[in-house]
């Protein structure tokens, strides 16, 4: 469901009476009543793991203030990696929008602060991607759609993004997402599918979120 259809659907869903009835029907069609509302659990859910586990030994990493890994060099490598991941055979749609020149400008400013010994905070120079449902200049906010940014223009950073900028974080761009967050499979017909790293090229096994795809 996209475009005008989702607009009409949202209009009905937000109506006080029709919306309540429609929501009840949708829950029934998706087995929410049977599996959740009226579910008869034989035993209580397990919220805490009972098995013993061992923490993974921490590995030392180079600090951003090191001459071997300044923010500018880290940003350049990441841009290259993202560019390559969008080409065959991987073709991953991690980002809906990102601007290499803007990223390198931020990273260069951070590198200069480190060279002067005056980083703003521990976040200074760290790459941070913003989900495309949060305003972040100079990018439009699409919400994973092809029409939202035309109806609602991004004119300023969201509050959380402003604070990240004040801390010196390098804002990398807007990450891919399901249209208006209306699903969990990350199959976006406009901005490509996100696969887990061990299922690249396999149809129907995408990552649940951009974070899943990036981390794994």
From TrEMBL:
<dbReference type="InterPro" id="IPR000120">
    <property type="entry name" value="Amidase"/>
</dbReference>
<dbReference type="GO" id="GO:0003824">
    <property type="term" value="F:catalytic activity"/>
</dbReference>
<feature type="domain" description="Amidase">
    <location>
        <begin position="100"/>
        <end position="190"/>
    </location>
</feature>
<keyword id="KW-1133">Transmembrane helix</keyword>
<keyword id="KW-0472">Membrane</keyword>
<dbReference type="InterPro" id="IPR036928">
    <property type="entry name" value="AS_sf"/>
</dbReference>
<dbReference type="InterPro" id="IPR023631">
    <property type="entry name" value="Amidase_dom"/>
</dbReference>
<feature type="transmembrane region" description="Helical">
    <location>
        <begin position="6"/>
        <end position="26"/>
    </location>
</feature>
<keyword id="KW-0812">Transmembrane</keyword>
<protein>
    <recommendedName>
        <fullName>Amidase domain-containing protein</fullName>
    </recommendedName>
</protein>
<dbReference type="Pfam" id="PF01425">
    <property type="entry name" value="Amidase"/>
</dbReference>
